[in-house]
Design a protein that fits this description.
The chain is mostly helical. It contains nine helices and no strands. About 75% of the residues lie in helices and about 0% in strands.
């Protein structure tokens, strides 16, 4: 099925472009004119209609969030750290869902064309007296299912495209295919991420809170002419341990979600491989006249459904993986949305 999707990819892309360009707004209407001009001049703007990598889209989202000013993205507080992480997480989720919906639409279109080809072959056999009309009527029901699957895929593409445009102000067709380049996370890398979640996530957030509290105390003391008293060491250690426990719990949840995503994806991919093998056997038997056209169509539809699920689970697994790196505080730099260490500066 994957090779058939690659064969029909140009036609599917044209269909997506013609059917869904109206769902995307190139420039936000509530952005001032000067900022609109800046957006149009950006290499990742919707006016350029150039395909964008995932990192380019994330950088574009951060620039929009910072009033479209081309400057280094830095954070000056705990709230800003959380805001940036949440913003990147939402943008990543939208990009992954859009990419999965595009692959699923191409898969549905390819499957429909396969069933239509089988229908044409069966019609020729019926005219030659080598097949029955009853078999042709059964195949028409399978063809209807394939067309309904295309309709659902178009609706999913439209829905995810509208969300993508709302978050990025870009056209859905501008997003390049997202290839997973990180691979599975090895055990030693997982241990390093867990340690980084403690020393980066917990300590940075705690230090930001401490600095904000110290600044507030200095202003209060300056107004009241009182002497500054050092914070009790035991209280400080207690707060540090609470922050570390919360960081450990957050990372444990993210790791569990990632491992479950890997397991679900591997299981579904195994089912897809089995369905692909059955489809190839059914195709050979159908061409030799040893199996009916409805049976071959059933094998095609089953393989298509399995591949549809694989695309969806692959998107979830990749999002769960990036959330692991987000817990360790390295997601912005890893994704290319910000320079290493930029989000940890105060």
């Amino acid at each position: 099925m994957t090779e058939r999707i690659a064969e029909h990819k140009p036609q599917a892309t044209v269909a997506i472009r013609h059917g869904l360009d109206h769902a995307a707004c190139a420039t936000p209407v509530n952005v001032p004119l000067v900022q609109r001009k800046h957006l149009s001049e950006q290499p990742g703007s919707a006016h350029s209609r150039q395909p964008l990598t995932l990192a380019a889209v994330l950088r574009h989202v951060l620039l929009l969030d910072n009033a479209c000013e081309p400057q280094t993205i830095t954070s000056t507080g705990e709230a800003a750290l959380g805001r940036t992480t949440a913003l990147l997480d939402n943008a990543m989720d939208a990009c992954l869902q859009l990419d999965a919906a595009r692959l699923q639409l191409q898969n549905a279109i390819a499957t429909r064309r396969e069933v239509e080809t089988v229908s044409e072959m069966l019609a020729a056999r019926v005219e030659a007296g080598q097949a029955s009309r009853d078999e042709q009527r059964k195949l028409e029901a399978r063809l209807l299912l394939a067309r309904e699957a295309v309709t659902r895929a178009v609706n999913d593409w439209s829905r995810t495209g509208r969300r993508f445009t709302k978050l990025t102000r870009l056209l859905p067709v501008q997003l390049e295919h997202i290839a997973e380049t990180l691979g599975s996370i090895p055990a030693d890398e997982m241990d390093r991420l867990a340690e980084a979640s403690l020393w980066t996530h917990a300590d940075v957030h705690l230090s930001l809170r401490q600095r904000a509290r110290a600044w507030t105390d200095r202003r209060a003391v300056s107004a009241g002419h009182e002497r500054i008293k050092p914070e009790d060491f035991n209280v400080w250690v207690s707060r540090m341990e609470q922050a570390r426990e919360q960081a450990t719990a957050d990372f444990a949840c993210a790791r569990e979600a990632y491992l479950q995503g890997v397991l679900d994806h591997d299981r579904e991919h195994a089912c897809f491989v089995r369905a692909r093998s059955l489809r190839r056997t059914a195709e050979s038997s159908f061409r030799l006249g040893a199996r009916s056209a409805p049976e071959f169509a059933d094998a095609l539809l089953d393989e298509s459904q399995r591949l549809h699920a694989v695309f969806s689970l692959q998107s979830r697994r990749l999002l769960a993986k990036h959330r692991l790196y987000a817990c360790a505080g390295v997601f912005p730099a890893l994704s290319g949305a910000a320079e290493p260490g930029a989000l940890g500066e105060a």
